């Protein structure tokens, strides 16, 4: 079982997403546990402030170290060793390979930031795996954390029902994982003049597999040629 400990100022926001789709299924199957912790609970003072103005001036507010350190030191002893993830634009880029790495961990602790950033001592105080989901600015780390959870738990054995489906998705392992997915069709055969390709109706599995590979190659060449460049670099 994989255990997630997610430190956030908005546990209700995170839990609302975890109650649906694959994250919910994974929890119901016993493949994963989610433990949400509000690090504001560890802040001092009447207002339980978790942020303050930055030294040296500048725009925005910065997360204070005290409540974050206290919350982490409270959460860590609750289970075994944790792979610690700091969600930050400065981290390594999250992709399918990173999701596969994380899916092998027994426990992951993630810290969701807010405001202008972290006090640097939060970064210095623990052995973080710093991860970014992309080169853009979000209001906090909750959406990146949920992205990582969703991409990771679907790789746990049995969660998708048919484990082969996870391997056939774009960005998975092998040649198929280097390509974008081929087009998918379902009933009806014709809709507003658009028809399901005849090969998919043929029942000829070999021809269908050939068509799907051709379509995946074409789609990747048209939309993400960089993925084919990466494939050539590995040969």
Overall pLDDT score: 92
Query: What distance lies between the first and last C-alpha atoms, to the nearest angstrom?
Result: 35 Å
- The radius of gyration is 22 Å
- Let me know the CATH homologous superfamily of the largest domain: SPOUT methyltransferase, trefoil knot domain
The CATH topology name of the largest domain reads: Alpha/beta knot
Q: Give the SSE order as H and E letters.
A: EHHEEEHEHEEHEHHHEEHHH
The first-level CATH class of the largest domain is given as Alpha Beta
Number of strands: 10
Query: Number of folding domains?
Result: 2
Helix/strand/pairing category = alpha/beta
Helix content: 40-55%
Main sheet: strands, sense, barrel: 5 strands, parallel
Spatial shape: elongated
Spans with pLDDT under 50 lasting ≥5 residues?
none
The assigned CATH architecture of the largest domain is 3-Layer(aba) Sandwich
Q: What share of residues are in beta strands?
A: 15-25%
Helix segment tally: 11
**Widest β-sheet, arrangement of strands:** 2-1-6-5-8
